[in-house]
Amino acid sequence: MDCIFCGIISGKIPSRKVYETARSLAFLDAFPLARGHTLVIPKSHYSKIQEMTQQDNADLFETVRIMAEKIERLTPSSLVAVHNGKESGQEVPHVHVHIIPRERGDGAGPVHNVFTKRTKLSETDFAEILEALKK
Fold first, then answer.
1. pTM beyond cutoff 0.90
2. CA 71 – CA 102 distance, rounded (Å)
3. CATH number at residue 9
4. Full domain range(s) for residue 110
5. How far is CA 32 from CA 36, 84, 100, 116, 134, in A?
6. Is the pLDDT of residue 18 over 70?
7. Which position among 37, 94, 96, 98 bears the catalytic label?
8. pLDDT, average across residues 92-106
9. Which residue, among 16, 13, 47, 48, has the nearest Cα to 29 in the 3D structure?
10. Which of the 8 DSSP states describes residue 62?
11. Structurally, how many domains does the chain consist of?
């Protein structure tokens, strides 16, 4: 497997590690969008979050919580983002959570600005989606 994040976990690829547990690793993004942009990854390889074990998921998001607190010592707030699959923009097929420091005037805006084509849903559409997701 040619996974850059697995290479970082194994130590074959250098990284700027910030925090580590038995199940997860946090390191500075090599191509940061803002000062302090950090990635948090599970040490086991998963392509999508729904593939993760409950233990790895709990550890990953506890590490995200800890790192968001640390990052927000540097900046007023942060954006926490997961691209969950190639179609969503995931560039490395290994689960990873971006924690991106945010501050007023940084030019990034809200997540709704990412989508230039917004979906228009009818009440019937909402009802069908709601029913499908409740199953």
1. yes
2. 10
3. 3.30.428.10
4. 4-134
5. 7, 19, 8, 23, 38
6. yes
7. 96
8. 95
9. 16
10. H
11. 1
